[in-house]
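Narrative progress, year one. The postdoctoral researcher (J.K.) led the effort to move from monomer predictions toward full complexes, under supervision of the PI. The following entry was the first complex the group processed end to end, covering 460 residues in total.
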Amino acid sequence: MSNKLHIKLNVNGKDEEFLAEPRELLIYTLRERLNITGPHIGCETSHCGACTVTIDGKSVKACTMFAAQASGKSVTTIEGIGGPDNLHPLQEAFKEHHGLQCGYCTPGMITRATKLLEENPNPTEEEIRFGMAGNICRCTGYQNIVKSIQAAATEMNAAASSTSEAVGSKEVEAAE
Amino acid sequence: MIPAAFEYYRPQDMAGVLAILEEHGDDARVMAGGHSLIPMMKLRMADVPHLIDLQDVGGMSDIDVGTDSITIGALVTQSDIIDHAGLAAAAPILREAALQIADPQVRYMGTVGGNVANGDPGNDMPGLMQCLDATFTVVGADGTRDIPAREFYEAAYMTAREDDEVLTTVTIPTPKGGWAYEKQKRKIGDYATAAAAVQITKDGDTCSSVSIAMTNLSDTPIYSEAAGAALVSTTVDDAALKAAMAAMLEDIDPTEDNRGPVAFKKHVAGVILRRAIERAWSRA
């Protein structure tokens, strides 16, 4: 048995400190230790992206990071993006445009999409499909997820221009 | 899904890394992005009693684009490669290839150093680095040494890096001419059924130099000098393309797996090489 490590995380704005074995994967920290059960587990080979969270500005599959690696960092999960009373435009758009059915991929999808739109506020359909390629969905066939992200982008850009905020843009292009 | 227990270290400098490697020998492994190692640990295919996380070791996250050469720190991520404008201008094949590796989440974490040091023939950067004639710098207890990418790969997961050495830097002579990284894969995130890296220059209508390497068609990446030789001093016409494809097929040794039988892989390798050469030539 290995020594436990003292781990500090900021999760959705709240500081968390605990002792954990080095082998504790971040997805289990979130789900079982902190009861943040929006991020899901859909595979054990780092493909599905259901566990996607944002760590220090990067979309990360929380099943492929040890909590120890994330120590000292800020983690945002679907729960930190918005709630029933204050839906994020992406959450609203997934609801409005039927971007989910069983809902199992949705937390990872939306968390990833927040980052995609931050990097590329006006993505084409191709850029959305490529930018979301690390997230698998069994139910929707992706079509309505694309529509949801497009609708959220339009909504967010309208809100941004009405408040005259400068929006940083970074090109994300498809290779194929 | 559940890795075996291990001791975790996050040293602040390379001296700290080397000390742990020296103390624990084969029982210690360094980890960069963790997106090959952790999946292997979760399947219990990698046993790592002492895991050394490199993330706090400074000086390995820079991209320097010089006049004659480019240096890339081992901890530079695939998304760093994609986002670096100066690198895209100086060596566009790197960005083209990086966009075909894995998926967005994996590219935020996975590093150039991990990709080239891993030793899995499925990784794309090893062949790319052989095409570009890159040099890998490793550091160990006895100091640093340089290993050409074309001499680095010995067999699947076997490289010229010793267990107590850490790959720190990739150095690439600034590439010239047209480029292409062409990859056939079953889906996003898959390792290649076949992939080809081509860098080519022309003098008038004639090919003056070319470098060709193939991915995932042997237990190592394959730099095919013969395929290149078949193109030099030609106009890269159909006969020259066929000669290059035939020469390449002599150098590869694919094995059957879920991506297809050997005959199919050889067929795809030829198609992919032809496409890569044609695209690189159109950009030369």
